[in-house]
Design goal:
77% helix, zinc ion transmembrane transporter activity, two-stranded antiparallel ribbon
Length: 371
């Protein structure tokens, strides 16, 4: 009877798991959708992004240390291991999860090493403003010889990166091409737009580089999101509160990721639709991860054993902590170097997660008393 109840509970949570994973994945679309609304971008300043990432890190680390790790321990005990053995297994798998993310990062960076470049792109856009720097914006002052300052800043970052990779720093000089003169301007100069033919834009090596940067980073983020979707779905099968916590944290940090994928594609192509589509596709890997998880569950007879959950939760706890430490917090401090909001955001994230877990525990306890 207990096995039947376990199977029924997991099956009841399947739809919830897919909903949570899909919502977290679509958060990249929410970030990318900002290219359609300059009004929303006004709130997406550096402190806003830093606070969002800090909040996500707080939620993710708290739920990993306090909830997911001990669920791994409890699952091993339920399987039949002694307490000391169960705790040792959970601990070993926690660090195995950290190693897994490190190895995954090596794979991702072998495909694309543009993550740092993208954050620099976002830095430029956030400093200069969004609508002022839209390619081809006819409402702004135009010049036939000078593109927008933000675009030139992005180009300069890209060119400097290429020079560093070659082991030398080349002097940046104005470039001339048919119908267009690219003149590097200082930060703080007036933002002016570019008047040029579409064919010239397509041939501009800087714009080609920007476009490739965005596409490759979308692919890299998609690979990185895959295990997050799988973990969220399988976690929801056992406990929807854990799945909801993971989906919340993942969704929060997917918003700035979507924005930073869309921006270079938008500036390189001038197409809002294309930039939105590619950022959206980077989040689709999370529902795909959930679908594969569901296929594994079905293939195993429609249920996941306590041993499998013990292994899963141990790995997930380590993975989420490593993502927080290696990705979310460093990026948050990039946007908030003086730590005006990040530390507070991390604490708020922990408090919010703690309160939600306490309220959930009280609700479950109340239901048990009624029965």
């Amino acid at each position: 009877a207990s096995q039947r109840n376990l199977r029924m509970t997991q099956q009841d949570n399947v739809a919830t798991g897919f909903i949570l994973v899909t919502a977290a994945g679509l958060a990249t679309a929410l970030g990318a959708g900002l290219v359609y609304s300059p009004w929303f971008v006004k709130i997406a300043n550096k402190k806003f992004l830093a606070g969002s990432l800090g909040l996500a890190a707080g939620v993710m680390m708290f739920v990993s240390f306090i909830e997911i790790f001990f669920k791994s321990n409890d699952a091993f005990v339920e399987h039949g291991f002694k307490e000391n053995v169960a705790f040792s297994l959970a601990t070993a798998l926690f660090f195995a999860g950290i190693v897994f993310i490190q190895l995954l990062d090596l794979v991702v960076h072998s495909i694309s090493d543009y993550e740092k470049d993208l954050h620099e792109v976002c830095d430029v856009v956030l400093e200069k403003g969004f609508e002022k720097n839209v390619p081809g914006n006819a409402n702004k002052t135009t010049s036939p010889t000078r593109p927008s300052t933000a675009i030139e800043e992005i180009k300069r970052e890209v060119k400097d990166r290429e020079s560093q990779m070659q082991g030398s720093i080349a002097d940046v000089a104005p470039r001339a091409s048919t119908g267009t003169t690219f003149e590097l301007t200082k930060r703080g100069s007036d933002v002016e737009n570019m008047s040029t033919s579409e064919s010239t834009l397509d041939k501009d090596p800087h714009r080609v580089r920007l476009n490739r940067m965005g596409l490759m980073t979308a692919l890299a983020i998609g690979i990185h999101n895959f295990p997050e979707g799988l973990a969220t779905f399988l976690g929801t099968l056992d406990d929807p509160s854990v799945g909801a916590a993971l989906a919340l944290a993942i969704g929060i940090h997917n918003i700035p990721e979507g924005l930073c994928v869309a921006i270079p594609i938008f500036y390189s192509t001038g197409s809002r639709h294309k930039s939105f589509l590619w950022a959206l596709l980077s989040g689709v890997s999370e529902p795909i991860g959930a679908a594969i998880g569901y296929a594994v569950v079905v293939a195993s007879g429609g249920e996941v054993s306590p041993l499998a959950f013990g292994i899963l939760f141990g790995l997930v706890a380590g993975m989420m902590v490593q993502i927080s430490i290696k990705e979310l917090l460093p990026t948050a401090f990039r946007y908030d170097a003086q730590d005006k909001v990040v530390t507070y955001a991390v604490i708020v994230g922990m408090v919010v997660m703690a309160l939600s877990l306490v309220l959930f525990a009280l609700a479950v306890s109340s239901d048990d008393d009624d029965e």
